Amino acid sequence: MGKTAVITGADRGLGLAVVKEFLEKGYKVFAGQYMAEWGELADLKKEYDEGLYIIPLDVGNDISVKNAFDLVAKETDSIDMLVNNAGIAGSAGDIYELEELERGLAMYNTNCLGALRMVHAFLPLLERGGEKRLCFVSSEAGSISVCHRQEGYVYPMSKTALNMAVRLLFEELNPRGYTFRLYHPGWVKSYMSGRKSKAGKYEPEESAASACQFFAQNLVHEDVLKMYDNEFAVWPF
């Protein structure tokens, strides 16, 4: 029987590329769709009809997360992996331009609290899964010790908060058999600001290939939490 994964932020960019990678590996994939008007998931569904389930999902909304869980639970009684990829970015929080902090609240709600909502909602299905694997797409931006940015305070802060949330989840759930993957995708030409960035070192497909290898493989030391990047280097967080 094939493995099952739930992936958030799957409409485009890294999330969509991760969906494709797992489908090619034979996973049954439940892809969280935030933008129904964006057609790439629908196109992919035509190719992987029985393996891909498109689930409306806004990780920043309690009701949306609950509804997504109900849809997944109708199709399966267990999942092996939850990939928390959904995220938004922007320049909110310059110390001289605090009027953009409302957008900063949206970043926290999606980038950090969204992951907690998803774990909370999907624990019953993960508990019955074979792998019990929780994967989180973070960023070097959240690493305090190697901080080099000088603007856009809130996005890095939201990723630091995510890293702490993952650490706390690890302390509670790893002794119960859950395994964790904390991933920095590198400088990806992403859609996080609303349109695909021309700046970046990696195409989404390049980082997704590394991500899926990292997410799917078993590690020698599953009782240690580390953040790896797409070249499998360890980052402090």
From TrEMBL:
- GO MF term list: oxidoreductase activity, acting on the CH-OH group of donors, NAD or NADP as acceptor
Q: What residues form the membrane-spanning segments?
A: none
- UniProt superkingdom: Bacteria
Its name, as the record gives it, is NAD(P)-dependent dehydrogenase, short-chain alcohol dehydrogenase family
Gene3D superfamilies from the xrefs? NAD(P)-binding Rossmann-like Domain (3.40.50.720)
